[in-house]
Structure formats: C-alpha cells, structure tokens
Amino acid sequence: MAITTISSRDFNQDTSSAKKATRQGPVIITDRGKPAHVLLSIEDYEKLTGVSASIVELLAMPEAADIEFETERAVISHRPVDLS
What we know:
single chain; alpha+beta; 4 helices
C-alpha cells in the first residue's frame, strides 16, 4: 500500500489525480507542510470503520419509527398572473 502526500494547493488544482492515487492507498493532504486531511477510497474507509452498509441503509434510520411527527395540511391557493 503506497501513501501519497500532496499539498492542499495541488489537491485543489488536480483533484482527479488525488482520487486516482487512492487506488494505491491513502492520500495525505498537507496544509503549509503539515498533514491536515486524508483521502481514502470508499473500500479502504469501510475496512477501517467496519461499516459496509449502503447509504440508503444508513439514511433509513429505523429508530425514527418511534418518533411522532404530525404536520398541518398545506393550503395551496391559485393567484391570477399579471403578465403586463
């Protein structure tokens, strides 16, 4: 696994190269010479966190079924259009 280091300026100017570099391993993005961020492929992220659920499953929020939520019915009325 190769670790690539790029400056934030280079990252801003050529994001696609940084994304391609994640195929080989993590990309460390520096800010003024100091490591500031790490860019990972989604596969590496899932290995690291142990999360392999899809975004749909993550957003489903099954625990939200217990929340009571009632809204008032919206009243939509038409207005005449002035095209003058």
